[in-house]
């Protein structure tokens, strides 16, 4: 069993924006602890690198990292949101177990 750090986001495919949309946030995970409801937002970039047309594996490799390290996400809110433009969120990865 290996330990890796993640941000506690669950994604679904967003065919309109050719990326991944946040479907849910893990209870008490880093994303939820940020206080920002990210559900429905589309992932635009990770640490300044655009993710449009990236594979799930490429995106996962950028989101996962050492527990305690930080990752910056650029998120595009849905059109119906109170946020008018993309927002940047800095999250600290927390450990979770990966069972081989």
Automatic annotation (TrEMBL):
Transmembrane segments: none
Identification of the protein by name: PDZ domain-containing protein
InterPro entries assigned to the protein according to its UniProt record, in alphabetical order: PDZ, PDZ_6, PDZ_sf
Domain PDZ, chain residue ranges per copy: 1-79
Organism placement in taxonomy: Eukaryota, Cryptophyceae, Pyrenomonadales, Geminigeraceae, Guillardia
Superkingdom of origin organism: Eukaryota
SMART domains in the cross-refs: PDZ
């Amino acid at each position: 069993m290996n330990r890796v750090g993640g941000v506690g986001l669950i994604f679904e495919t967003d065919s309109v924006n050719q990326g991944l949309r946040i479907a849910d946030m893990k209870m008490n995970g880093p994303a939820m602890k940020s206080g920002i409801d990210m559900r429905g937002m589309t992932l635009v970039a990770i640490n300044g690198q655009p993710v449009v047309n990236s594979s799930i594996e490429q995106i996962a490799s950028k989101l996962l990292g050492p527990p305690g390290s930080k990752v910056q996400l650029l998120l595009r809110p849905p059109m119906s949101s109170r946020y008018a433009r993309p927002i940047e969120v800095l999250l600290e990865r927390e450990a979770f177990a990966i069972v081989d």
